[in-house]
Protein: Ribosomal protein lysine methyltransferase
Amino acid sequence: MDELMAALVDEVEDVDEETFHVFFQNHSSTQDLGMLDPRAEEVELAINGRDFTIKQSPGVLQSKREGGTTGAAVWRACLVFAEWLAWAKNPLFSSDLLTSESVTLELGSGISGVVPLIASPRVGRVVATDQQYALKLLQENITNNLPAARPKSPKGHTKQQHAPPSNIDVLALDWETSDIPAFLSTQGLRDGVDAVLMCDCIYNYALIKPLVQTCVEICRARSTRQSNIDEKSKPTICLIAQQLRQPDVFEQWLQAFMASLRVWRVPDGMLTNGLKEGSGYVVHVGLLRDK
Structure:
């Protein structure tokens, strides 16, 4: 942990300075919403030498469902974030912050399952979460894209077979309504997780407070364990990848996030090309502040 924190260089101390840096100093913002192809029923992807066929739900995306529908499509930010997670030199793994025994939890997974699918070979358990409406397609995409689920016939068609074993759990978690301690307890996560992954979850003022509070409550589970049981256990690390769209939304999120967590921006030397400055994306790391 100390090795990684030292490599991250400067901790973010000023919300205004960080907002100016990521949006204006590096001309990184974009007006593109960031969906790969919202009208397609299926999209074909290739990440780190693996091929994926991801089903989308254009009908749900275009509906007026209360609670939002953004999770019904594949977002580019998740693809570049997944590429970074798969990178052999990813600092989370090279520093042993994450290992083959680690447990990660993704908030706002959406329907694609790309981030859990990429993370699963490198860690012990992946928990992919979202609102109930997204879970059926999320589970289907994960099941259909596990390595052993995609054998090819001589003509190149994918054969159907029983789902192989997986270390990915797909679970309902709503930032606004879920009881986070109860959720963790019932899912065997009473002692917390090693990492919380968030990819393009920050786009709406109304969701900032519940998202940050959810992160804090998950991190507190591990913090409580450190205090009561195992002082040597590593704290939960939060990883936030996002497309840079609206400075005001970013600024409000960062202010709320920094109130409870220490924050670092991941520098270019620790990122793959798709996430470096000028790409339109940024990755931050958060650690719960000491009481």
Remarks:
- The chain has a mean pLDDT of 87.
- The chain has one domain: 2-288.
